[in-house]
Amino acid sequence: MVHWAQRTVRTLRRNGRDGVAPSPRRDHRSRRARLENRVAYIFLAPWLIGMVVFAIGPMLISLYLSFTRYDLFTEPVWTGLDNYTRMFFRDTRWRTSLEVTSAFVFWTVPLRLVFALGVAMVLNRALRGVSLYRAIYYLPSLLGGSVAIAILWRQVFGSQGLLNQVLAPLGLPTTSWIANPDTALSTLIILGVWQFGSPMIIFLAGLKQIPKELYEAANIDGASKLAMFFRITVPLLTPIIFFNLIMQMISSFQSFTPAFIISGGSGGPANSTLFYTLYLYQQAFSSFRMGYASALAWTLVLIIALFTVVNFVASRYWVFYQDEGKK
Amino acid sequence: MKRAPRTTWLIHLGLAAGAILMLYPLLWMISSSFKPPSLIFRDLGLWPSATTLDNYRYGWTALNIPFSRFFLNSFLISSLSVIGTVISASFTAYAFARLEFRFKRPLFALMLMTLMLPGHVTLIPQYVLFLRLDWINTFYPLWVPSFFGGGAFFIFLNVQFIRSIPRELDEVAEVDGANHFQVYWRIIFPLSLPALITTAVFAFLWSWDDFFSQLLYISDIRLHTVPLALRAFLDSSGESSFGPLFAMSTLSLIPVFVLFVLAQRFLVQGIATSGVKG
Question: For residue B181, what is the nearest residue in chain A, using CA coordinates?
Fold first, then answer.
């Protein structure tokens, strides 16, 4: 089941060259083939229109807007690279938002993957009630992005919240975790890590695909559990680890709702939860700097693309594809 | 391999402890929503020593307009999104999975690329578009786009699924004189039902929780969705009324719980086959 993940990753590596199996009928375009072509475009029409109207068109327009000053109500004014030079050299809040977001991604993604893999390993065995455990561990990732959970988090980590009620009787230090600039981001990281369920499910599907014979053979050779984990499980799982890493990174960079609700839209205290997307939202919809916000958006895309490309390049050295050896 | 019963027992203990830790905040919120306000900040336990429905009564009407209105708004938007996503993702997926057409490979690659594209880069022009259409403070921006492809995740999920349906079925129907539309409608659509259910459930949940778009396009209180209403309630009451806030938050999660329980199998399969985020 998960094997498509490996295929997708490879497909993207090859710039989409092999996304679709080559068509045997491609060269002689009979009447039938022409008809099929027409029918296909009828089926594709809604998506194609959507691509142009809601994706490609807006992308190009926002690229243009990123070189302008635009307040939504008067015509955009071309300002060349002003938005970008301002962002890179003069905007300290932008730099802060980048640091906050990077710190969030840097902690959340690896921790989430470690928990996801760890729990998946434990759940990947014949155990009674395994589907119940799986459901329970998965549930937070379905709820975690909601406003309701953000409200809950605000209470749990507030000055009179659940956490302090646990800590105080134990004589441990208490603080208002969300109002303290040193700890506010940590509460969001905990919320992020709490949602390790969906990569866990993907890991579980991947673990099921590892042939049992490998472990049996290793067992006969007297390999320890630890050796089996590092020599069999991890190498065979690297494509899935890689896939999860990329997808989790992309989505973590775009996290918005928890920071917005927990900080009341400000990114506070002291900008400590000023996520990139939150800053972008403020610039666009509080200050109506649409041109500048477009530049922020494009920079975010480039940052994510850069991280993704670096990961793809690095993946050549650590991701192992089973069928590569056979070629 | 046979394991010692002791080890199995320890694993169960660890898993159960972890599960309780994972669910504790959630269960505590539900339990607190039934506690009198004075207890919320004192009672750590899950079983309230005194229960009341006051939080629900107060919370339901705390915003002048009862929460029933917000639930209706949310249900309306989510339902329309589900319809749009299921129909258009299935259409698109059928073409990619079964038909031959020009530019198939570049278009498929393009679709896969939008899978990774951050939405923020299209945000502002889309906002301008909806502003020009006079769609601000209407539900249109929240569901109309779902009728135009429904998102790359869902297209991809359905492509993968349709590819697994034996082609012989199409061919038999074609021999019987069925055209592509009939093949789609009589064979592909009914047989891809599991993938369509997965699509519908995720589309509903994402639309239900899509706070960001709702925040952008809706400001009129009568058009508020449940997440927007929760946020408005939080802003107006602050830290003082966590009881009613918890009560309404709990209610807002009920549709998610229900779908989770009813469609867990489809959710798990959907994630495992397409890697969609949860």
Answer: A39
